[in-house]
Amino acid sequence: MLTAALCGTPPSHVQAMQFIPSPAATDTQVQTSVLVGACSHQHAPSPQPGCKPFSARPASPDSARTPGPPPSSLVIGDSIVRNIRSKTAATYCFPGGRVLDLVEKIPCLLMKHPHARNVIIHVGTNDTACQQSERRGIFQHMVPPSLLTEMRGAAMSLTAAASGLVVFLLSVSVVQGQDGWGVTYSPTEICAVKGSTVEIRCSYTFPSPWRGSVNTVEKTFWFTKWRDGEPVDLTTDSEYAGRVEDLGEKNICTLRIRNLTESDSAEYKFRFETNQAGGKYGGSTGVTLSVSNLQVTSDTNWLFCQSSYPQSSNPSYIWYKNGQIIQGETSRYTSNPNNADSYSCALKGYEDFPSPAVYGPKLPSVSVSPSAEIEEGSSVTLTCSTDANPAANYIWYKKNGNQKLPPLTKEPKLFFSSIQSSDSGQYFCAAENELGKRTSEMISVDVKFAPKLPSVSVSPSAEIEEGSSVTLTCSSDANPAANYTWYKKNQNAHLSSVNEAPFVVLSSIQSSDSGQYYCTAENKLGSRRSESIFIDVTYAPKLPSVSVSPSAEIEEGSSVTLTCSSDANPAANYTWYKEDEDSPKASGQIFTITDFRAEHSGSYSCGAQNKLGRSNSNLHLSVGTGSSTMIVNIIRTTLGVLILILVFLLSLWMRKKKALRSTTEAPEPEEIELDSDPEYENDSDTAAQTEDTEEQEDLV
Question: 324, 344, 359 — which closes off a domain?
């Protein structure tokens, strides 16, 4: 019965197991102490850095023991036991070995050392990292029940040591030598090339009859690893699916593995099971298969064919250039490779399994993602790829005119998380390995973006004079190119489109063209408006306008104000002149005569002048007769008109009266005589009288 205790508590993964000893377990009792690291995890970790993988290659027996009597103890362990020296112990060092691996070695070693009574298995290391690795090892199934049966095991118990390590005390009954049982491998070490096919051969024997019964083989298989305490049949291992064949017949065992890979390197063991209880045998050792992966490396002008094939066997090599055999049978070849050539090598006898060809980079291809239109602010990736062996190293560049900028990145991909307009341009990459260097074609990156802030300019930039030619220019950085519109702002802040072009040409600019202008730049990605620019047109004074106050007839002694105004830029200066006088009368827009006399009458002129020209306007002033004379004339005229009206009315009345009188007397028609002279005379007298009256009034 197996019991476990770790600091007083059995570990959850160490279960009680009962081993039934073989009936023949009556021979020498061997006391074995197994010293291992504490276990804490269900799964064994990968080898830590510095821990070599288990090779199952024991050091030469007794190599660490001094001459003397046969050893009474065996020390089996990993590299930590390599320096043990003892007169009474034989040391076996298995670098990287674990407990399970070492326990399998015990039967064979006991047969070599029949006087051994103690077997000490020490698994651990002086390296802290590796010690931790060992302590994380799996020990639940480290001693499989079947193996203990083969070793005629009796019982195992676990106790906790004061140092914190777990000590396994194993009592085993072992028959030194099992007559008739055995597996013979030939050879025990095989080297093969990756991709080839290998056959591993052995033969086996077993006693029949055994224990008084017929002993027949019921099952045979090859294995390299254990699972849940049992060896795993290679034909059921997924790693070998479709690649292994068990060709054994009778007592001959043959394993064929096709299309070898480097992971196939392992120790292969054969196992057979009979119809008898305990009739299982596989031996403690197997055949070590080393799969060599040929690889060509280079250094300066030398090529090297590297393999894991033992150099002690002095292998011969074959070199290929572009698939054709070239001179050379050693592991190195001198050449001056270029991008167009490829080189490979093979082991003689394995010509059908050459190494992968090595060659310089082919012409790199470049691509842009996304392949659609690239907009500013988006994410863009440039990718460089080439066919090369060994793999190429990449460098990205951006072209700057006839020169290239410093390397942008030494990765196969150049990534822009938020690409900008300034990133537009031509890019290329270089791919290089030990055998050559190639440069890709240029690839253009065209970043689309909305117009930037437009800039505006005026030509000429000096003072603008009326009648000259003026050009307004609007420009903006945009992709695709922007469309431009010019606007002028009027006094009410209303806008009016001036022109839909980047240029506005005013061939003969006028004063009315003065004002604020701005432009807009627009494409499908957006629009921007420029700052406003002020156009100030300068011009000579226009024809001045002159006004008089008061505007009625000027009376002698009154005050008269003359005002002159003219449109001009810059503003005009004003000067007043009087006809026939050389010196100016006054300057300024307003000219005032406080006491107007007859001598002030005459023609006056106003002159408006600036640096661009001069303009004049004339005005005539005269003194009136007075207000009383005017009133008398008005009264006389009014009376004359009233008298004429009265005379006209009186004349009409007298004619009507005469007509009525003639109708009352009713004279005979033939006796009537027209006599109008008297009336005409009377009328004439009246008119004469009226004229005399008017003449008298005029005299008055």
Answer: 359
Please, which contacts does 306-310 make with residues 24 or more away whose CB atoms are closer than 8 Å?
306/331, 307/193, 307/331, 307/347, 308/191, 309/191, 309/193, 309/347, 310/191
Q: pLDDT tens for residues 612-657?
A: 999 999 988 887 655 555 665 678 788 888 898 988 888 888 888 8
SS (H, E, C) 251-263: CEEEEEECCCCHH
Instruction: Tell me 66's DSSP state.
Output: -
Q: 337 and 343 in contact (C-beta within 8 Å)?
A: yes
Where does residue 411 rank: exposed (0-12), middle (13-18), buried (19+ CB within 10 A)? middle
| Residue 128 belongs to a domain | yes
**Tokens coding 522:** 């627009």
For residue 359, report the phi and psi dihedrals to the nearest 5 degrees: -165, 160
Residues spanned by the domain of 429: 365-447
In this structure, the answer to whether residues 316 and 343 fall within a common structural domain is yes
Determine how β-strand 73-77 pairs with β-strand 118-122: parallel
pLDDT band at residue 190 under the 50/70/90 scheme: confident
Condensed to tens digits (0 to 9), the pLDDT of residues 75-123 reads 888 766 666 666 677 888 877 666 656 766 776 777 667 667 677 777 6
Indicate if 63 and 146 belong to the same structural domain.
Answer: yes
What is the total count of domains within the chain? 6
User: Which residue type sits at 323?
Assistant: G
